[in-house]
Design goal:
heterodimer, A: alpha/beta, 2-enoyl-CoA Hydratase, Chain A, domain 1, six-stranded mixed beta sheet, three-stranded parallel beta sheet, 11 strands, 50% helix, globular, B: alpha/beta, 52% helix
Chain lengths: 238, 237
């Protein structure tokens, strides 16, 4: 089974992240980018839902086993390449000419939470699972573009709380603070409602592309201008 | 008794402003910067709480009694230097390398309210005291950096109201609109604030780096945009 798969359901493309924890490593980034590219080429598709096949996790963020190994082996170019590739994944979600909807069916942590924030809309199941930025407790500061992405998707007072406390929050609290469109009762309701919401979008790609490019212009600029200053020297931890 | 004092409660530094209305003038700000340095360099504190000793005022902002004679005398170099001093102080708060929590023990007006916005978190008493930007009524426009500071702490819809009306907002309203984490009666305020500050327990190096990046846009405006305004040595519209 591929790490990342996608299928078509009418005008909606459903990307499924296909491992237990959906950790981000070079293969994950490539899988996501390939899926986005194929979806963009299919002119019938008008919206995208990103789901996970795991019962417990949507995405737990960076594959620490992989990155620690790469650090130990001094495979610095492959770490740099991975960081840029993940930025490309985020950028793709931010600029794809159609709405991208995260259907969070479980824990969403760290880089996984950034991926969710790169989407245009978020749904989450309410019966279990947390959303969290644990970086403050593991001493990995966010890249500048990541902060800009979070600020787009989370009201500022709540960004400060989540970034500076590392606290885990559930779907109900996320709904209350407008981080997600809806906290759905369970995993089945989540997919049903996220896909139904996606299906309501049949906007023209040209206008949607421009809308997203202009709304997220500052994030893309920060990604291009400011992130390399941390990625190039691999200044990722403090 | 000095204008500012601090004590440690476990790893939480509690800084008490003890200068009446705690208005900003060169001596007060100079002392404040020294105490911030001392807490950073001479203690192992990993959170900072700031409160006021005054029974109804947290901080009323710029000391106009001190400043206005220089404004009236058009002594622009004094005014300019003071403006830079205010900015250096607010900049220091924005980048202070540990969680900062304002325990708003009473009125926070004008510069005092702006200062509150430079903290990472705010708690406020609910039984008395207002949060207010009276600048619109006294004809003193915010500097660009200050606008960025208040945007950080106050949702846009509420900021426009407060900024353009100069209306006074209670602790309970501040909580409702997410300007403070929590508003509670004065007799619970310090317990709650200290419990919250003590619960964070973050690594200073990381926290400082995170604040630099989180507040980078505000710092850029202070450093690059404000000087054109401040160098005029005029603070009134």
């Amino acid at each position: 089974m591929a790490l990342v798969e996608w299928k078509k359901d009418g005008t909606v493309a459903i990307i499924t992240m296909n491992t237990e924890e959906n950790r981000h490593n070079p293969d994950f980034a490539k899988g996501m980018l390939d899926a986005f590219d194929a979806i963009e080429q299919d002119q019938e598709i008008k919206s995208v839902v990103i789901a996970s096949s795991s019962e417990k996790n949507w995405s737990l963020g960076i594959d620490l086993a992989w990155i620690t190994g790469a650090m130990t082996n001094q495979e610095l170019d492959s770490i740099r390449g991975f960081m840029y590739d993940m930025n490309s994944v985020f950028r793709k979600a931010l600029t794809l000419p159609m709405p991208v909807i995260a259907a969070m069916n479980g824990h969403t942590f760290g880089n996984g939470s950034i991926l969710a924030c790169s989407c245009d809309y978020r749904f989450m199941k309410a019966d279990r699972g947390y959303f969290c930025f644990p970086e403050v407790d593991i001493n990995i500061p966010f890249l500048p573009s990541m902060l800009a992405t979070m600020k787009k998707s989370i009201p500022y007072y709540k960004v400060e709380e989540l970034v500076f406390s590392g606290r885990r929050i559930g779907a109900k609290e996320m709904e209350e603070h407008h981080i997600i469109v809806k906290a759905c009762d369970n995993a089945d309701a989540l997919m049903e409602e996220a896909v139904a919401f996606a299906r309501t979008y049949t906007k023209g790609r040209t206008i949607f592309a421009q809308h997203k490019l202009r709304l997220h212009k500052h994030i893309v600029e920060i990604m291009e201008k400011e992130d390399p200053e941390f990625i190039e020297p691999l200044n990722l931890m403090v | 008794m000095s204008m500012l004092e601090y004590s440690l409660d476990g790893k939480v530094a509690i800084l008490t402003m003890n200068s009446g209305e705690n208005r900003f003038n060169p001596a007060f700000l100079d002392e404040f910067m020294k105490v911030l340095d001392e807490i950073e360099h001479s203690t192992d504190a990993n959170a900072l709480v700031v409160k006021s000793a005054h029974d109804k005022i947290f901080c009323n902002g710029i000391d106009l009694d001190w400043l206005m004679p220089f404004v009236q005398a058009d002594d622009r170099s004094v005014v300019r230097d003071f403006c830079y001093q205010v900015n250096a102080f607010l900049r220091r708060l924005l980048l202070y390398p540990m969680p900062t929590v304002a325990a708003i023990t009473g009125h926070a007006f004008a510069g005092g309210a702006i200062m509150c916005c430079c903290f990472d978190f705010r708690f406020m008493r609910s039984d008395r005291g207002f949060f207010c930007f009276p600048e619109v009524n006294i004809g003193i426009p915010f500097w660009p950096g200050m606008v960025a500071m208040v945007k950080k702490a106050i949702p846009g819809y509420k900021l426009e109201e407060m900024y353009y009306l100069g209306n006074r907002v209670t602790g309970a309203q501040c909580q409702e609109h997410h300007i403070v984490t929590e508003a509670c009666p004065m007799d619970e305020l310090m317990d709650k604030t200290l419990a919250f500050a003590g619960s964070l327990d973050k690594n200073r190096t990381f926290y400082g780096a995170q604040k630099e990046r989180m507040n980078a846009d505000i710092i850029r405006i202070i450093d690059e945009v404000d000087p054109a305004v401040l160098d005029t040595g005029k603070i009134s519209a």
